Amino acid sequence: MLILLFVSFAFGFVPDYWPTDGWRYDDSYDFQELEAYINRIFWKELHSLIIIKDGYVVYENYFKENGSQVSPDDLHALHSATKSINSLLVGIMIDNGYIPSEHIQVMEIFSDYIVENSSKEKYMIELRHVLENTCGFEWNEWAYSYADPRNIYNKFISSPDRVQFVLNLPIADAPGEKFVYNTGASHLVTAAIQRITGKSALEFAEENLFHPLGITEVIWPKDSQGINKGAGLNMIPKDMAKIGLLMLTEDIWEGKQLISKDWIEKSLQKMNRVSTNVYFGYHWWIYEHQNIEIISAYGYNDQRIYIIPSKSLVMVTTAAISSEFSLKLLEDYVLPSFE
After folding, report:
1. pLDDT tens digits, residue range 254-307?
2. What are the b/e assignments for 239-271, b being 16+ CB within 10 Å?
């Protein structure tokens, strides 16, 4: 159920330089306890860790993946952390007048599709419902592991037309009524970007987001229909950190507003409670920890971009960890370093 709790993040941080062409470093912090914990518990599964404080890299380390040393220039699959970047692209589409708002109906965008299980509710689904994970499709991605062929996600990725597969799904809940994590529906976002702008999600992102940030090395695979995968972006960790810093500055970069403040405020409303201290906005996760709000882009196996506005802090992890190790690392070892 939509709960629309408003958050008051301490945004508006302005760094004293812009890392478009490269990050600057501050080595004045001590992270011995953090490193001891990593080496003791999870160093084999953690691939990279970057901490940005006040716009400066205060910690950066690269570990091993399958026995090989990870390079700072290695591209990492973001998996579902891609979805948070897609949310930014929707905001840019609205800012640039491609669509009037996120209330546009999904079936209007894909009006040429002939869909199965047609219903009144299906034609009520708006783009915002997709961003909220409340679109109402019959879908349970968390019922089985991703290695299990019974997981509907595996049926989705093996389908010849992923957009058609999603649009064909029966409706289980009225749009906006219930949070259901749905990677298939998230693929509709990149498909919508391509249909609405006439450019692939990658091309649109390069023009409006990546190039202004100095992000030039990305890979974004496509599905069989030539659509960038909704959860398929690959980036280097230090470029993931640029996305985090952009959020800290209310999407201002080098004096230019890349995405409207209004969109960021909407995106980070606590629209749905996922668990006790975890909420979901427009494809952004929001955590509460000891009166500290933590924003996160979250991908499978702990690919993470964390933004902590009250601390002017960004943390990035790439990993192969099935648990939420990075959140524990942040809460127990990183945040205490900046008290």
Report:
1. 999 999 999 999 999 999 999 989 999 999 999 999 999 999 999 999 999 999
2. bbbbbbbbbbbbbbbeeeebbeeebbbbbbbbb
